[in-house]
Amino acid sequence: MALVSTFCGQYTGYVAIVLASYLVVVRTLRYRRLQRLDANREFKFSEKPGLTPAQAQRILRVSLQYDIPWITTMAVRFALFKTYGIPTIAGVLNKTEQLTKRETSGKRYMDTSLLINSWVFCPIYGPGSGAACPANSADIDPRNALAVARTNWLHGRYPSISNDDLLYTLSLFILEPARWSQEYDWRGFSELERQALVVFWVEIGCRLGIKGIPSTYEDILAWSEDYERDNMVPSKPNKVLAARTVELLLYRVPEVLKPLGRIVVSCLMGDRLRNAVCVPPPPPLLQKFVKGALRARGFVIRHFALPRLMPFCYLEAQATFVPGEGTAALPRLQTIMHDNEPWYYPESTGGWKLLEIIMVKLGLATPTQLPGSHFQSKGYRMEELGPTTFDKVGHEKVMQMAEAMQGAPIVGPFSMALNASDPVRCPMSIRSW
């Protein structure tokens, strides 16, 4: 004890200096990206009539890929979940059976994730974007345009989808990330970032054919709240859809803990949404604990964690293609991460394969849960995403819509005209724009 007391007495001052220095470094570096963003003259409102969608997309990279990526990802997932509290939206989705059947819900979840991430993280080009296309068409990453075009083609198969339902969904992509980050993370969106949210998503909404989109954050919030108050009511389709989606959200949670996981998910719903999807209210103490834990995480990150060095993204910055099957097959893309079922994820090799074998032997996984042909491990094509009943159709139309949207032809591995002898040249990476 005497030795410990002597050590503490001699080095307490040094430890305090090191700790204080670390906290200063954290404080300095944590806000560095945001400060640089605010200081960028290109985005100054006083010097330009307004942001372009391309500028807005670049601004959002700071929050969505570096500063607060986890909470904004959770917010978008809950934004989609929130739409299931609207009977007209839940009714259409239930009729497709893509989210309510176990054999199709995982693919539907992954396809939706790939489409939305392509909207957000792949550069936006074409009329209305404010960004000029590169002179060489081979340097264009067309995933943004292809994802919007494929979504439009799929929505066209369901004429019962109303404009207001689409507008409500779009409004949540703006409102929920801003709300969640402000409430739970180490910082919320700045005024510039909030404006960028509106500018970017309004352009995406226009490309999706949505009419009557409000032009300011305040107007979008008011419209969304009015619509929700009038339309978010209980229904059986709401309950069925929400229950299956919760199972997807809890895919990695051990079976014994899933009942607790369902209660935790309900803690993050508002009273109106809980009522609409027929979920009982959680214990008030648990609700306070869950929200308090998220806020504690934000506090720790703000004061004690160094900023992220590498960007977070569900997509590869530089699209990497793998050969298609057969001599006439087109090259395909594979996923680099998955939250539940490993759709389009490459089969494991080497040490990872050995680990999978061990997990199966120990009963921690089954072969049907691992990457393989049953999850289309050979990859996907942007123009094929969607229900399996549509994966072979609409490709030419999607290409035409995407080319008109980005104002340039789609060439190289993303096109459908690639010959087997053509080099698979990837376009410029996401990080280069």
Describe this structure in words.
- The chain has 433 residues and is mainly α.
- The protein has helices at residues 2-30, 32-39, 53-67, 69-83, 87-96, 102-121, 143-155, 163-184, 191-207, 217-231, 236-249, 258-267, 271-276, 284-304, 350-361, 395-406; strands at 321-322, 332-333.
- The longest helix is centred in the N-terminal third of the chain and has 29 residues, at 2-30.
Q: What is the strand arrangement across the widest sheet?
A: 1-2
Q: Catalogue the unreliable spans.
A: none
Judged by helices, strands and strand pairing, the structural class is mainly alpha
Q: What are the secondary-structure elements, in order, as H or E? A: HHHHHHHHHHHHHHEEHH
Report the span from N to C terminus.
60 Å
Give the biggest beta sheet: 2 strands, antiparallel
Shape summary: globular
Number of helices: 16
Radius of gyration: 24 Å
The percent of residues in helical segments reads: 55-70%
Secondary structure tally: strands: 2
Strand content: under 5%
**Mean pLDDT figure:** 88
